[in-house]
Amino acid sequence: MNLPPLKLLPLSILVVTLLLLAGPSLGQSGDRGLYLTAKLGSTDVEADIEDIFDQVIDGDEDSTTFEVGYKLNRFFGVQAGYHDLGDFASVSTCPECEILTVPLRAETTAYSLSVVPQTRVFWRLSVFGKIGMAFLDTDLRTDLGAQSEPIDSFSDEEVIYGAGARFRIFSNLSVLAEWEQIGSDIETVSIGATLQF
Prior knowledge:
The protein is mainly β. It has one domain (35-196): Beta Barrel (Porin). It is 9% helix and 68% strand. It contains one helix and eight strands, in the order H-E-E-E-E-E-E-E-E. The radius of gyration is 19 Å and the shape is elongated.
């Protein structure tokens, strides 16, 4: 996908600013490092695609997310993620054409880049937030059994934000629960594990 550079400019400025502010703390032992996260969740989508075909995507599906991040200090990190949001039921009608409703399936994936503020609450429990941009790809196909075929695909960019809690089990392994929102149409609740290096 070709991403317009101007749309990435505000996020790039934010990331660079946080890196500069975090500079004095980067040398503190244990306050920085690479981490990997894997999550399983449930994603709810309610989207209305406004074109000549009134396409409505609505449903709940299992989803998976993989993230790689870098903890800048004990208060901030940055991360990139891949989100497989599921395969959702959809319908399409053409009011102007006066045709019957056609059942569809919509498969959506996304890549994200986020800033992650975080702080420890007590003992091994910490809380974190997330704010960034998500870049989505959706493929639409007819849902007619053996006659199913692709009919459309489109890309979009949305703000991604969320919050969660993480509990450290070992020095480099923790479990987490997270709520996440992409734009106004996609909401995910997930659990997962993080391995820090």
